[in-house]
Amino acid sequence: MKSFRSLFVANRLWFVLTTMVLLFITAYAFPILFPLVRVAFVVFVVLIGLDVWLLFRPQARAGIFARREVPDRLSNGDENPITIYLENQYAFQTYVEVIDEIPFQFQRRDVLFRARLNPRETRAIRYELRPTRRGEYNFGAVNVFALSPLGLVKRRYQFEQGKLVAVYPSYLQMRQYELLAATNRLNEVGVKRIRRIGHSMEFEQVRPYTTGDDVRTINWKATSRRSDAQGASLMINAYQDERSQPVYCLIDKGRVMQSPFEGLTLLDYAINASLVLSNIALMKQDRAGILTFSDHVGQLLPADRRSGHMLRILELLYRQKTRFLETDYESLYASVRTHIRQRSLLLLFTNFETVSAMQRQLPYLRRLAKDHLLLVVFFENTELRSLLDQPATDTEQIYLKTIGEKFTFEKKQIVKELAQYGIQTILTAPQNLTANTVNKYLELKARGMI
């Protein structure tokens, strides 16, 4: 780690210089003041020399040390913590300004921090960055400007900490769901607790009753024996969920998925939701797979649940990019029919704005639903929703609200028409996509449909 030192003029010095110039002009008009101005100038020069000596004297050695701590990879769409550690090695109190050279993709010019460090004090400055695109991000140097208590000059320290960091799909969100699922607290992120309708015939164990269990599974004989031995306590029969069911996320990379929402494209929302859902499916002992498509079929990762499969899913999703072409559902159907032979749950992440757009693809959707359990996931237009919630005040706004109502109605019509052919649907706002998708998967699993 290399440090570069430079001398900069502090704001206070510019103020003093301006004052000295004004004093010399005044002394030119009133010569009696010239000796006093000359003494003030000498004192000023001595103070500058003292300030430079305090900051640059050999005994100061490094003076200020700084180090940036950034994760090896960042999570797309999430707030990622960044930490800068500062250490004051001067023997006096120092005022510092820290400018961190963050990647240009963030388009931020406000990463400036100020701090006051006592002698030998160490401090951590923490802030967060939210990337909105997957890819490689390059961090630059950490610049620290140190001022002595006099504050007339600044000494710059530049710590070359260039680092290339990859931005992956939202693995922080995946870990959050994984942790909440392990502690049975998924309801905190909007995932509902779903009562199982029926159960498989594979008996697992007899265990104590907990709130939310199906009362029809109470084992009265076991309850009677336990009540006699340890006091009253209900016991139930626990059954295993069906396992090793293939779950595929089909991700549309066509131009309809390029629409932005809060900085992220619909494709990125679909990728983040697919990552979380795949992880939940693996936790449920199902097999997770990915298939991407646009004007042609992209990559196919067969459904599996072996060790390391989640990492393969993450790497595949990291490399996906939007293609600005019309999606070819015929190629999708042909690929699914060729490579996915076992009946599976297919979650199709796409977007239909109009009924006619959906009807053009309906023959292929019906064929997919004939061999598999098809769940079509598409998006609400949240901008239209905010427009509809505002009262109209003139003719133009009435016209816009009428058009907005038409598009909103067509979204609901798409849901109804797909339901007529037994195709499951999710119509959701982008920010609710992950929770709604996980809810639907758990519902289908509880109903024994997969």
Automatic annotation (TrEMBL):
Keyword set includes Transmembrane helix: yes
Domain DUF58: 205-376
Protein's UniProt keywords contain Lipid metabolism: no
InterPro entries: DUF58 (IPR002881), vWFA_dom_sf (IPR036465)
Keywords tagged on the record: Membrane, Transmembrane, Transmembrane helix
Origin: domain of life: Bacteria
SUPFAM superfamilies hit by this protein: vWA-like
Transmembrane stretches, start-end: 12-30, 36-56
Name of the featured protein: DUF58 domain-containing protein
Lineage of the species this protein comes from: Bacteria, Pseudomonadati, Bacteroidota, Cytophagia, Cytophagales
